[in-house]
């Protein structure tokens, strides 16, 4: 086997209240990653598609860094060329960096017959995330790998589980962050009262997903005291967009992952209306945005036959 090609979905990390712990895989958009053996004994990263500003050096690219960690552990005898075909816009909070990293490790696992389990793949891929936000976090990579709603049961060692999701229509206003990461601005402490509230938000979401109730899922992702207050400050007109989207009948609205994209959950027959509101209000804030109407997906990273 000389090459493996995989498809890796976008993810909404945190998925409302679950900072670094929850994520949801999406049907669209997705990236394609090809890993191919080379005789140079080196890791080379190449990017095609939406590649604006993404570094290709091994240490600065999430797939490259994840591949380097895989090589340190498994010490394979050949090098690899990693080709990332990006359909996922980067720096928009849609798990682009995590998708590249986890798709790469998934491909390497097959290519070298390494027999890594899903938690080991997530662990290595999460180290690749350091190249993007400076911190190893597992929510995006776990959601992308497994599909569905994923929660990180434990960080040391990584233990991630997937819960199958019902039909969850999602509208996304895709907004690129002006800055590489806003993560460092999130306070390192919250009060006991806030912690209690946040735990209840997370519990509501898990319960809603298990019950398969779209309205409850939407209402549960609508609340967050950790990421949203910080990330939303960098999104022009965010409060107005959220207010209008909810008034129009969306069940919930929040910041996707590290921002600055905004997602809303609504009934299928409401998606066009919500998309219109997001498009108009989003552009009034002076930021370039485009709208994606998609849905949750129970499929994570999969091997495919060709590019
Ligand atoms: N959990 C991560 C964060 C997701 O909030 O920073 C963004 O990559």
Summarize the structure.
The protein has helices at 62-74, 96-111, 118-128, 130-133, 139-146, 192-211, 214-221, 228-231, 238-247, 271-284; strands at 3-13, 22-38, 43-49, 79-86, 149-154, 159-163, 169-175, 252-255, 262-265, 289-295, 302-304. It is of the alpha+beta class and 307 residues long. Strands 1, 2, 3, 4, 5, 6 and 11 form a 7-stranded mixed sheet that branches.
Characterize the structure shown.
- The protein has 307 residues and is an alpha+beta fold.
- The chain contains 10 helices and 11 strands.
- Strand 1 and strand 2 form a beta hairpin.
- Helix 1 packs parallel to helix 2.
- L-homoserine (HSE) binds next to helix 5.
Topology:
Layout: E1 3-13, E2 22-38, E3 43-49, H1 62-74, E4 79-86, H2 96-111, H3 118-128, H4 130-133, H5 139-146, E5 149-154, E6 159-163, E7 169-175, H6 192-211, H7 214-221, H8 228-231, H9 238-247, E8 252-255, E9 262-265, H10 271-284, E10 289-295, E11 302-304
Helix pairs in contact: 1-2, 1-3, 2-3, 2-5, 3-5, 6-7, 9-10
Keywords:
single chain, alpha+beta, Ribosomal Protein S5, domain 2, Alpha-Beta Plaits, 2 domains, 10 helices, 35% helix, binds L-homoserine
Bound molecules: L-homoserine
Give the total of domains. Answer: 2
**Helix/strand-derived class?**
alpha+beta
CATH topology of the largest domain: Ribosomal Protein S5, domain 2
Helix content: 25-40%
* Major sheet summary line: 7 strands, mixed
Figure out the total of helices: 10
Secondary-structure element string: EEEHEHHHHEEEHHHHEEHEE
Proportion of strand residues: 25-35%
Span from first to last CA?
16 Å
Radius of gyration: 19 Å
User: For this structure, what is the CATH class of the largest domain?
Assistant: Alpha Beta
